[in-house]
């Protein structure tokens, strides 16, 4: 599939990144995953705002003008010959002999374009199982950094137990999923973890907030503890790639009636409209 590296369109399997690159030696970079529905990037401006914010937060000198950067994304989409795809964008501190100190070199920009990696319709219909896992990450999870080791370890653990996601908790409260935000529905009210340094400000989370406002569904930012999680009427997770995904089990315990609930379904329906 088509990819991009520092000014060139390449094949995603081409060996274009040298060994001495900060991205794979240090995880010294930031990224975004953007979904394109029928040739239209979904909430592109919000993704770019977050990318520039993440870069700034790690003092990465990413000075590419927004319009020219967008032009590269659109050219990648066009070259992919796909209409529905996921674009991965990564900015690193560049190519320099390994040294912890910041190098004096240009940043590296890479992108890939891949067909949707979607959750099966069957699982979406049934709802997902999840596990709980301590949040072992650092305290700057609002930055979409390449350092994902705690995330992948927890997600793999979930997978090995037949689950889709690991829901992370810190100090007795839910933070987020390893690659998603977590929402509880209680008494018709949608609740999710307040934004802080401990979670990523999900773009899908933002979309859910907007959809809820449109529908007059009560949306509340609130710390949810483990007891409240188990006692939820409905539970769902959100991300660019999983959209709004119902959750029906946590650590083997059934949530609500054990199937996707009416508020989740309503939000899903209206979210889908925004992607059309
Ligand atoms: N992950 N929290 C974490 C830790 C994430 O990695 C993600 C997204 C989200 C949801 O954010 P958004 O709605 O903007 O996709 C929350 C992406 C999809 C990934 O790593 O593949």
UniProtKB/TrEMBL annotation:
It catalyses: D-alanine + 2-oxoglutarate = D-glutamate + pyruvate. Its EC number is 2.6.1.21. One of its GO terms (molecular function) is D-alanine-2-oxoglutarate aminotransferase activity. InterPro entries: Aminotrans_IV, Aminotrans_IV_CS, Aminotransferase-like, BCAT-like_C, BCAT-like_N, Class-IV_PLP-Dep_Aminotrnsfr, D_amino_transT. Keywords: Aminotransferase, Pyridoxal phosphate, Transferase. The keyword Transferase applies. Signal peptide: none annotated. It is an enzyme of class 2 (transferase). Its cofactor is pyridoxal 5'-phosphate. SUPFAM superfamilies: D-aminoacid aminotransferase-like PLP-dependent enzymes. Pfam families: Aminotran_4. Acts on the D-isomers of alanine, leucine, aspartate, glutamate, aminobutyrate, norvaline and asparagine. The enzyme transfers an amino group from a substrate D-amino acid to the pyridoxal phosphate cofactor to form pyridoxamine and an alpha-keto acid in the first half-reaction. Belongs to the class-IV pyridoxal-phosphate-dependent aminotransferase family. Homodimer. This is D-alanine aminotransferase. The gene is dat.
